[in-house]
Design brief:
Length: 139
């Protein structure tokens, strides 16, 4: 009985690892492709800009915080976290794939709360990712 349970556990861990590997491979392919359909779709990028300004920019935008600090709270938190190894402004990040952004949005990070699909859809997250990638590619 114990051997059967152990084998079942190994199969389950193997399946989880396989799904994780497939997700990483998909993310790598998306980030490696020079231009996905989302990047080329100006309407999706514009919708992403509008949603970013509404949902993300209050914490992750440029400018001073309401408390007088030099940066907004999300931007400042990323500045502290990355210590100059990555840009603090999301619109300067070239490494945020839709999948990575979805993980941050759905699970939350540090003081950032998670957001439910009823608050922001996966399609809207994809559009925000397209907007961020587009903004980061501009001089």
């Amino acid at each position: 009985m114990r051997r059967v349970a152990t084998m079942r556990g190994l199969r389950m861990r193997g399946a989880v690892a396989a799904r994780a590997l497939a997700a990483l491979a998909a993310a790598a392919m998306l980030s490696a492709s020079p231009a996905s359909a989302q990047d080329g779709d100006r309407a999706a990028i514009e919708r992403g800009r509008q949603k970013f300004e509404y949902m993300c920019e209050p914490c992750h935008g440029a400018g001073i915080g309401d408390d007088g600090r030099a940066m907004l709270p999300g931007t400042d938190a990323l500045r502290i976290k990355y210590r100059g190894t990555r840009p603090a402004l999301l619109t300067e990040r070239t490494d945020l794939t839709p999948e990575a952004l979805r993980v941050f949005v759905r699970q939350g990070v540090f003081s950032m709360p998670p957001f439910r699909p009823t608050e922001i859809t996966d399609e809207e997250i994809d559009e925000i990712a397209a907007y961020i990638r587009d903004a980061a590619s501009r001089p």
